[in-house]
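ok so heres the complex, two chains, lmk if somethin looks off
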Amino acid sequence: MTTATTQTLETSQLPQLHEPRNDGMPLDLDWVASAQANTSAIERRAATLGGRRSIKKDYQAAWLCKAISLMDLTTLSGDDTVNRVRRLCAKARQPIRADLATQLGMTGLTTGAVCVYHEMVPTAVAALEGTNIPVAAVSTGFPAGLSPFHLRIAEIGESVAAGAQEIDIVISRRHVLTGNWQALYDEMREMRDTCGEAHVKAILATGELGTLRNVAKASLVCMMAGADFIKTSTGKESVNATLPVSLTMIRAIRDYQDRTGIKVGYKPAGGISKAKDALLYLALIKDELGDRWLQPDLFRFGASSLLGDIERQLEHHVTGAYSAQWRHAIG
Amino acid sequence: MTIKEIFDTMDYGPAPESASEALQWLADRGGCAGHYIGGKWGPIRDDFPTNNPATGEKLAGVTKGTAEEVATAVKAARKAQPGWAKDAHTRARILYAIARGMQKNSRLLAVMESLDNGKPIRESRDIDVPLAIRHFYYHAGMAQLMEAELPDRQPLGVCGQIIPWNFPLLMLAWKIAPALAMGNTVVLKPAEFTPLTAMVFCEIAEAAGVPPGVINIVTGDGDTGAAIVAADVDKIAFTGSTSVGRIIREQTAGSGKALSLELGGKSPYIVFEDADVDSAVEGLVDAIWFNQGQVCCAGSRLLVQEGIAERFYAKLRARMDGLRIGDPLDKAIDIGAIVDPSQRDMIAAMVSGNTEGETYQTTAPDGCFYPPTLITGLSPASHLMQEEIFGPVLAATTFRTPSEAVEIANNTRYGLAASVWSENINLALDIAPQLAAGIVWVNGTNMMDAAAGFGGVRESGFGREGGWEGLAGYTKPKIKREKLTSIAPFTGAGGPSDPLDRTAKLYIGGKQARPDGGYSRPVFGPKGALLGEASLANRKDLRNAVEAMNAAKSWGKTTGHLRAQILYYIAENLSARSDELAKRIKDLTGKAGKDEVQHCINTLFTFAAWADKYDGQAHSVPIRGVALAMKEPVGKIAAFCADDWPLLGAISPMAAAMAMGNRITLIANQPFPLAATDLYQILETSDVPGGVVNILTGDHSELAPHAAKHMDIDAVWSFSGTNLAATLEKGAAGNLKRTWINPAGPSAKDMLVAATEVKNIWIPYGA
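and the predicted structre for the whole thing:
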């Protein structure tokens, strides 16, 4: 663990460099059992958020740049190739057109990370050399997490060895659905230990957990077992990140900090494709967790198409004319 | 700030809604608000200003309506009423057109509301205006259905309506939509601080085809309001403070004007230890920081279970820190301006006058703003736990058990709304019916809709707005009210017809009791024979009867089936003694009593039948959940019995009250009291628990003021031939008890309505 004083936030995106890392705690089943999440109240809060917070003009442009800096630019497709990943990494280095970046006064803006499958890790690491952009690898039998346990653990080791600095693991949904919190804890603990210095994001696959109460409980258990980040979805479930799910998870993060003093990061992933949605998420994080979480070491968007919409909005901000998709480089 | 600087600070910037269209609208109309009478504007004068509370700048001049102007408006309404009442479908079409017109002007209405009142544009845009529009759509439907669904009801006539400044347009909608739907015409006074959206509304209504005189708006202040109360109207509908409501109750006493009052509150917000604590904290934002806390049903008393209190307070303080207070027209503002500096000062004085507990306050900009405030560590005895503050100030205390939560929650003069937070359905649904409130929200707060009645109990007023239950306030039975005639008791000088002394005692708490005063009066038959003596009850006997009703509290929790069984049993016992009772009636009145006794048995059967069938409703409110409109007993009733039916006059209110779970004290028929006193033995042998029914004999005029003023009686009914209206209605102002005076008919249904309060329990759900 490095102290926060030696690095500024701009120089790295990795959480363990700025805050004490979450080493976890013994599984506290009483706490898990007492976790509540009232679905209708949470939905009401989420539904009114858009009406309560409005970000305009320069503020909107700045917030959208922030969203880019918090983005895990992602490709997780069966047809990914080396050159496809290189292209994505190029986009991560320069997410917006140079002239726009200059006019916005945001030169040097990069995405938060690049997120790929294990096979693409060496390519991405090489392509991002000389930047502070870490490579994240999805792991542990992503997306279902049903391959043999020893292979899932081995996969983490391989990805870390290949240069991934962040590992996005998937949890066993069956442990949540059967209330086997000990099994979930043990699994998460071992995955975290295997990650070593790489930081670990626990993907809950919230669309498959049935209830928000399960989401709250799974969030707590993963944090107790040492997750650096908790993340909503693989992007492959039929329902991915939603505001109600996010509210539930970040409230768990807040409770965990209240109890342990440790800040755990949050990553909504899947389904966030509009600039407007990104602003809503940022407002939610700002209001519920505070400004400290609006940094890449504690918050990421998992997104593949969001950047394109943000680029158009930024050009509109600069020129006053609505933009077109083809005016911006693809990733 | 540069984009890079904002990127680093991630502040919210300004997000202003433009005021220019609304200000232009005012300028185009001469910058003055005034009357709209008989379809025409005027007179319009700049008698006093209405200001933008956020800036202190004058928005417009306001006309102070005079008594003559009010009279002109009432006349216009009177003239228009018969035509308006003629065709329900036409009314439905016009109300629908109003709703459409409001939708088309929704932004103007929202901006005007925020300018005039100081509430955040988010609220006026997303809550006030849509709810107001919804009210017109809903009541367009009620107009359409009136003939089919309410065949026995007719409009009241002209309604005088006085509304507050906290929800100017929404309260206007709540008042005008149901009144118009049922065929009434209105004279409405917007609040002196906030007359502007009513002006916009008049133009929308006119464009929607509302005929001249159907809607009349008179602007002004309290004096103008008083002129409406005094005017020749058939009903006064008032929303506002309890103190003004009380004055209106007194001033309309005995006038025959119908009255509905929607008054203050100090609504409890109860958080059990198994609640979703974060959601309950967030709920408070909507409960007490909605509209700067200037909400009659604001959750202003926080009751937290002791074990989670500190954690809850800590989370709440953190949430308060995140509330953004400032320019109401900023789209990212949570808390706007207080309506007027005088209100702000009143809030500040109440908070600074408090010396108890710990006060936590965030900051507010200079001007007419007041910061969100939490005061913990208070007790029910604290001034701020009892008095309505009407500002963004939350008073908090703790409780240990569910029953203590109910006890503290109900320890108030008010009874408007309540929130219950628990993830345990058994707990939440057990608590909700026990709360003294007209509205209960389970795991939620401040949910409102046209389909669910809104209104309170106790000193929060009476009458409901919205839902089927709200229509009762704007209709009356088609049957004509009979002229009141009192019957004088027979006189005589004869000795007793029965050699044994027959002095009827009083019946209190299931026992026969001598009157406190030790006086009785002889009761003579038509030919002067002395039939017996009837006790003369005084105020202390009434007090004792109320104590007995209190002791019989559990009657309200019995099942409808059990109450039906007891009513049938009374009928059975009465039937067994029908010859004797018929003879008694004959002796008392000189007329055959057989039919009356049969009528009594029939009535007992009717209410026994209803006891388990007068169901509540599940309202179709636009949430995933239900609003259960539960019929609850009114509580403790005092009823003055009719002169012309010695026995039925007692049986009928008794049976209706009992069937719905009320306790009742009957003040027996004045000229012929000895039929009611014959009921003692029947009640004693029919398993009626002591105290559920108490019977006093005595002088109606003498007992009426004491019954009306008694703070622990919830309703007073009079069927007496003596005109008690003024006395009862005036005295009722004390605790704002419900009054029901010499109703036309009334039908069994009417009696059931009078014997119940509708409590709407909102139950949102989600797995």
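quick notes: The first strand of chain B starts at residue 32 and ends at 33. thats all i got rn
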